[in-house]
Design brief:
Number of helices: 10
Order of helices and strands: EHEHEHEHHEHHEHEHEH
Helix content: 25-40%
CATH superfamily: Aldolase class I
Distance between the termini: 15 Å
Structural class: alpha/beta
Strand content: 15-25%
Mean pLDDT: 96
CATH architecture: Alpha-Beta Barrel
Strand order of the largest sheet: 1-2-3-4-5-6-7-8
CATH topology: TIM Barrel
Number of domains: 1
């Protein structure tokens, strides 16, 4: 496995008001001793309205901030949207892009994700590019075909900082998790594609997401080519999320 620092990212989705988000962030900070000395980098990705409160809670720590999406344009008449420069200005290091809840719930295409990727890079953010198959695609034996197609269509040319996350759609929030052998096969397939596409392809972390929890984190992190976790519901509980971060080594 190439040398790279693992990433444990918490995607809080559309949850928590500012006071709740601040309390959760402080709980994670306390549980991880500020994040200093951890083997993995830890990122918290709250909803847009809580970015400021969480940024304040993370000041002076090694835990970093991330956004959950961005618009492809840096500014303009796009009511309700948030741009990549706005996220950077709010203190973000990362931004989640191409999440299945946007691809399948809101109809976002690979091309739309690719445009957002370019915007994130232009703003100095590190995108966490999400890929994953539906249950029907999995049952049809199309998992690798789907994630390869999504990677090819969503990743613009360039060599700027990148994280990839494999999140099988059928596992998100369901409690179902692929076998360790299945996870390894997909991660190895994605690694091969990244190596073909970029000179730094061997050094790009590939996270696993989809019902990752404290009780399965260590086993998943031990799988070949798993470079961290993108954690959904389990990131909303500070003690458990901190344990998952510590499981990364």
């Amino acid at each position: 496995m190439a040398a790279y620092r693992r990433l444990i990212a918490g995607n809080w989705k559309m949850n928590l008001l500012r006071a709740e988000a601040s309390a959760l962030a402080r709980g994670v900070v306390e549980g991880l001793g500020g994040g200093q000395g951890l083997a993995a980098e830890v990122a918290l990705c709250p909803p847009f309205t809580a970015l400021g409160a969480v940024a304040d809670a993370l000041k002076g720590t090694a835990i970093v901030l991330g956004g959950q999406d961005c618009h492809e344009k840096p500014s303009g008449a796009f009511t309700g949207s948030v741009s990549a420069p706005m996220l950077k200005d709010a203190g973000c290091r990362y931004v989640i892009l191409g999440h299945s809840e946007r691809r399948h719930g809101l109809g976002e295409t690979d091309a739309m994700t690719a445009a957002k990727m370019g915007a994130a890079w232009a703003a100095g953010l590190i995108p966490i590019l999400c890929l994953g198959e539906t249950a029907a695609e999995r049952d049809a034996g199309q998992t690798l075909t789907v994630v390869r197609r999504q990677l090819a269509g969503s990743l613009p040319p360039g060599e700027k900082a990148l994280v990839v996350a494999y999140e099988p759609v059928w596992a998100i929030g369901t409690g179902r998790v692929p076998t360790e052998a299945d996870i390894a096969a997909v991660h190895r397939g994605l690694r091969a594609e990244l190596v073909k596409k970029r000179p730094d392809g061997a050094a790009i972390p590939i996270l696993y997401g989809g019902s990752a929890k404290p009780d399965n984190a260590q086993a998943i992190l031990a799988v070949d080519e798993v470079g961290g976790l993108l954690v959904g519901g389990a990131s909303l509980e500070a003690k458990g999320f901190a344990a998952m971060a510590r499981a990364a080594g």
